[in-house]
Amino acid sequence: MGSYKTLLLERDGHVATLTLNRPDRMNAFDGTMREELPAAWAEIAADPDIWCVILTGAGERAFCAGMDLREPPPQAKLTPEQFSKLPRTRITSLDCNVGKPVIAAVNGVCAGGGLAFVADADIVICSDNVTFTDGRTTAGQVSIHGTLRLARKIPLETVMRLVLLGRAEKLTAQRAYEIGLASEVVKPADLMTRARALAAAIVENSPSAVFHTQDMIWKSLNTGLDQALDSGWNVVTSFARDFADAQEGARAFVEKRKPNWKYAPPPGQNAQKKS
Amino acid sequence: MNFETLKYERRDSAAILTLNRPDRHNAINSVMARELPAAWAEIDRDPQVRVAIVTGAGEKSLCTGFDVSDIASDTADVKSMGFTSLQCRVWKPVITAVNGMVCGGGLHFVADSDLVIAAEQATFFDTHVNVGLIAGMEPIVLARKMSIEPLMRLSLVGRSDRMNARRAMQLGIIGEVVAKENLLSRALELARLIAENSPAACARTKRALWDSLNMGLDDAREMGWKVIEDYWTHPDTKEGARAFAEKRKPSWARPEGK
Question: Which chain B residue lies closest to A52 (C-alpha atoms)?
Fold first, then answer.
């Protein structure tokens, strides 16, 4: 695994753990982290041994506090002309078309742009002491990154509260569980154990079936329901025809043995990369 | 109606459709895959039927999806799906009564029904990825009905992670949890309450809601307005207002099939 200044990337079996590693700055992303995240996601995407990713933050206080406000915002030193040509911020696995399942293990405060990691994760579990908050409008910024996806993931009133009340609103771990933003709330000491147990269960399954299922669900939110079901049906039938895992799974089930899965790159990696 | 893998009965204005392979957890084999569309056609056709109830035989399971042993030998046979009212375009209201375990393709009945209630011991999970298959249909509908994270968890973790009835209720996937001995009577009670309302208004309201999921919000609001305009001349609109003023039970027009 590559070495990074602001991240830790490790692999154990088929599970990679990516840790946002600026604990003294509550794991806020600065310019370096913004450059390193796409590189780390690219490494994860390309590695055939990685089938599932756990994303967490270093230290006990924060998961990610969003953009590091100590750094002048990019627009401060650029002309409007230069600013309009800046590449889009790509910090999450969805932004970077990784196409592999991500479990966010939220170990502390998740704020502002840090919400993008939670919005874009497939599975979210959190420590019982964490809060989710969005101070962007309080700091004079629009709240867009992560927010638009959150609006498809959880009830809209909750999203509106977060973005309009700004720093004054703190969504607790318990409330995050109730509304289905997170599926598990645990004691801080148990967080990584639970994340690893979930990852272990996921990598027992066919990686290709997992990648395609995840891709279908996210893509289905881009179209109307009937159209999404038509594409779903096409993928289901072509998968059963073209992927050895479909036959292997049924065979292993009948023969009561562990299946031997074959890795293939996720379909999500073929998504058009817009700058 | 007589079926090999289904039990079909009518009680007052409700049709009860029971998936009836209890020794195989009511899994869908190729016979059931053929019989389900025929049952939905009958529900749509019979003007006495106002509401359909879907449930499973026995106390263990509603449905565990495709019978894997059947599918392993026989995949080419399945050209399209007509398991549910939504897939068969039946616009009469449908209540699914989850009597036990429901997993894999059985989730179609949870996803595609209008009301869902469950017995206390019901569990929900998705086994597709365990056996190398994509969960490419059920979650797409569920994604319009519930928060995405718990859905992703169901679809990606597979059989080792089971959601109980209480959590399904909390997330709004189901509307009621009842003791198993009361499940069918509660479903029939809900069916009776729905049957008191105008069948045409229920069917068109149901259809507008499902259709609205096919478009953006502004387009859906336009579509909704057209539904209201089209319905305005329907006899039930006058009858409803008249019965209300005269403090009597309305006499609704016969339900509209396809």
Answer: B156
Alpha-carbon distance of B128 to A103, in angstroms, equals: 19
Q: Which residue has the tokens 């990074």?
A: A4
In angstroms, the CA A138 to CA B172 distance is 32
For B152, residues 6+ apart whose C-beta sits below 8 A from its C-beta are: A101, A122, A123, A214, A217
Its domain, for residue B70, covers 6-195
- Reported as a single tens digit per residue, the pLDDT across A47-103 is 999 999 999 999 999 999 999 888 776 666 777 777 777 777 899 999 999 999 999
Q: 3-class DSSP state for residue B106?
A: helix
Residue pLDDT, tens place only, A146-203: 999 999 999 999 999 999 999 999 999 999 999 999 999 999 999 999 999 999 999 9
pLDDT (0 to 100) of residue A70 = 83
Q: Does B179 share its domain with B203?
A: no
Q: How far apart, in whole angstroms, are the C-alpha atoms of residue A152 and residue A149?
A: 5
3-state secondary structure of B56: strand
Residues in chain A: 275
Q: Does the ipTM exceed 0.95?
A: no
Which has the closest alpha carbon to B19: B115, B92, B105? B105
**Who's near A186: CB < 8 A, 6+ residues apart?**
A125, A126, A127, A128, A194
Residues of A whose CB is below 8 A from B146: 180
Q: Pick from A216, A224, A232: which is nearest to B214 by CB?
A: A224
Q: Choosing among A115, A236, A263, which should be mutated to test the B contact, i.e. which has the most B CBs within 10 A?
A: A236
* Residue among A231, B78, B93 at smallest CA distance from B105: B78
Q: Does B208 touch chain A (CB under 8 A)?
A: no
Give the tokens for residue A273: 């990369």
User: And the tokens for B31?
Assistant: 């016979």
My answer on whether B207 and B179 are in the same domain is: no
Q: Is B141 on the interface with A (CB under 8 A)?
A: yes
Helix (H) or strand (E) holding B187: helix B183-195
B195-to-A87, B111, B112, B210 alpha-carbon distances in Å: 57, 22, 20, 20
Please give the domain boundaries of chain A with CATH numbers for all domains: 7-203 (3.90.226.10), 206-270 (1.10.12.10)
Give the number of beta-carbon pairs within 8 Å between A and B: 157
